Amino acid sequence: MPRATFPDLFGKPALNSRELRKLQLLATPVRFRSGQKVVAEGEVANEVYGLSQGVVRVYKKLADGRHHVLRFALPGDILELPRGECHCVSADAIGAVSASRFARSEFLEFIQASRTMTQLMIDFAAEQLKRSQDQMLFLGRGTPEEQLTAFLASWRKRLPRRPGRFVPLPMSRRDIAAHLGMAPETLTRTFAKLEQKKIIRVEADGVQLPAIRRSRSPTKR
Length: 221
Fold this sequence. Notes:
Blueprint: H1 6-11, H2 17-26, E1 28-32, E2 37-39, E3 47-61, E4 67-73, E5 90-103, H3 104-113, H4 115-141, H5 144-158, E6 166-168, H6 173-180, H7 184-196, E7 201-203, E8 206-208
Antiparallel strand pairs: 1-5, 2-5, 3-4, 3-5, 6-8, 7-8
């Protein structure tokens, strides 16, 4: 059975059959190897990418040369909203990635022609804003243990449901640290503390989450 592509993941069931077919026709399937750059901050944004398979690191480069990871994109996500002439972020593949590439002008025309697609884009932008706000609150008020626990719970919630309590972590520890604004050494110690408290159990390519049920709002302390 073929895996779903971005138009299906993003558009169903909201788009009608004609709109979905149009979105599929606008899409060009592309693949990226692990570590390959999908978009580069500052380059002309002639294209828009929607993720079909895999995980992508979306980040900005800081003045001191470090990277701040804004989010980890999953299938069905748009890597960057088509809001400017140049890319405002960079994005690299974590493992093998499949995506749908759209000409920016055609994608914008389709959004403007479809009320449903417009609403889907608004909903997507609102969800990204909410996640950013939650992250900012935790970065400002949460302890390292609270920040990591919230990230793991949020990441598990975004993944497809699966039996058991294992949560894969395809991104590196350095990427997670760059996302949470921690030093890599702090993140390593925090993983160890949570494991000592039996909140998580670290495995080769992920964690078991026996004690994490849901992320706690940072405003409820």
